Amino acid sequence: MNNPGLTVIGAGLAGCEAAFAAAGRGIPVTLWEQKPLRRSPAHSGDGFAELVCSNSLKAQRLGSAAGLLKAEMERMGSICMEAARACAVPAGGALAVDRDAFSQYITDKLAAHPNIMIEHKVCEAIPAQGAVVVATGPLTDGALAEDIERLCGARLAFYDAAAPIVTAESLCMEHIFTQSRYDRGGADDYLNCPLNKEQYERFQEALCGAQTALVHDFDVYEGCMPIEVLAARGKDAIRFGPMKPVGLRDPRTGRRPWAVLQLRRENKEGSLYNLVGFQTNLKFGEQQRVFGMIPALENAEFVRYGVMHRNSFLSSPGLLDLNFALRRDPRVFFAGQITGVEGYMESALSGLLAGQNAARRLWGKSPLLLPQTTMSGALSRYVSEYEGKDFQPMGANFGILPPLSERIKDKRLRYEALANRGLSDLEQALKEANFDNREMEGV
Questions:
Q1: How many other CB atoms are there within 10 angstroms of residue 390's CB atom?
Q2: Per-residue DSSP letters for 73-107?
Q3: How far apart are CA 12 and CA 5, in angstroms?
Q4: pLDDT for the residue 159
Q5: How far apart are CA 264 and CA 139, in angstroms?
Q6: Residue 439 within a domain
Q7: Rounded to an integer, what distance in angstroms lies between the CA atom of residue 380 and that of residue 393?
Q8: DSSP code for 173
Q9: Pair 107, 13: CB distance under 8 Å
Q10: Domain boundary at 307, 333, 348, which?
């Protein structure tokens, strides 16, 4: 059976996973990579799958979100996991790699694959025909970005600053009351974290003195001003801004608090909450320390720290299906950070699934859709079905998984149970899909 083949645009981690997954299933793949003809500001080498920010791929322990994601990817034949194992360097409980060796391993593996043809070219438009995986990264711009917007019928999203997200179960509920401002909306739409005058002044002072991360120079709109910048404008600046208490009354005191941090649901399950108005560029450790001064957040578990990026990404919910295909043009798949996943391995995972599903489509098979109890399936659903107010990039975390049927108080044991459930459900899903991670000729 002849197959028309697949074009993959971009040889970052996501593009390499997509190319390798499809080629391993008997699909002829043409991989377009713009280096060395052109480089983004983040890249310096000519190899594929270049790690630019860190050489750490996060925790290996199965009882961690990052560890579960890697275990799932390894089971599905990830080239990035294969390379990481081969190029690992000592890093305690984390999986860290020799960056150059990692890139070279993947470059050599793809260059030697009989089903992959590599073309070095600058892509300015998505091919009008044939199956395509677009894996061009969060710095996609120029003519290609315009063509993506035309194809999707929607502009690429963009954010300068994003607020942290915490797990609901880690909040100190004795320091929280539920109420919408002026009682508009549902009674439990917001969780309110009150501070008295003394608590607020200590918090504001610590916020002004906290260490910020290095950020490249770019404009920040007033509407997403980092909370620490706003706090530096005056002692009451944030109390009259994101922490304003007007329209709220603490039922325990019967009075309006001195200041309030509001938390808004990040998912329909109510397992994750966003710190409203707390966009920040503080270093991650400082976010834990300073925001932990708010009584309700004393033991908060951050699944995403506040960040400042100049990233372009799709508003994927409503645009992409669970299999990472564009709903209005299913021959086109997207993968990597442009889809709204965040992190090296999360990007690689999206490429792995996009490549597999592009191959399955070309062979006339139904898509591989993983259950939400797996980290891979949960990330796919976050990208395609997020129902919150503002879609923002997300990495692997246990907060996006459905809860266990039984309550386990010990966090370590609970996470291990979630991971074991995920791997068990993954095996069942792969079996039902007749999935095999060995290289095949395609049937």
A1: 13
A2: HHHTT-HHHHHHHHTEE--TTEEEE-HHHHHHHHH
A3: 20
A4: 61
A5: 29
A6: no
A7: 12
A8: G
A9: no
A10: 307
Total number of domains constituting the chain: 2
pLDDT digits (tens, 9 = 90+) for 40-68: 655 567 789 998 766 789 889 999 999 99
CATH assignment at residue 56: 3.50.50.60
Provide the β-strand partners of residue 167. 272
SS3 readout for 295-327: HHHCCCCEEECCEEEEEEECCCCCCECCCCEEC
127 & 216 share domain:
no
Residue 61 belongs to some domain of the structure: yes
Asked, for residue 442, whether it belongs to a domain, the answer is no
> Both 195 and 126 in a single domain?
no
Give the per-residue pLDDT at 218: 42
Q: What sign does the CA torsion over 209, 213, 218, 224 have?
A: negative
- What torsion do the CA atoms of 46, 10, 54, 303 make, to the nearest 10 degrees? 180
Domain boundary, last residue among 288, 307, 326? 307
Task: Using the structure block, give the residue that is written with the tokens 């439990």.
Answer: 188
Assign 1 a pLDDT band (cuts: 50, 70, 90).
very low
Q: Please say whether the beta carbons of 167 and 296 come within 8 A.
A: no
How confident is the model at residue 221, as a pLDDT? Answer: 42
| Together in a domain, 284 and 322 | no
C-alpha 312/C-alpha 201 separation (Å) is 37
**Structure confidence by residue, pLDDT tens digits, 131-140:** 999 999 888 8
Q: Which two tokens stand for residue 5?
A: 């083949």
Main-chain phi, psi angles of 154, to 5 degrees: -155, 150
Burial, 241: exposed, middle or buried (Cβ in 10 Å; 0-12, 13-18, 19+)?
Answer: middle
Residue range(s) defining the domain that contains residue 79: 6-156+314-432
**Structure tokens, 137:** 């990264």
Residue 322 has pLDDT above 90, yes or no: yes
Clarify whether residues 26 and 80 are in a common domain: yes
1 located within any domain: no
Q: What is the H or E stretch that residue 68 is in?
A: helix 65-75
- Closest residue by Cα to residue 110 from 129, 82, 135, 75: 82
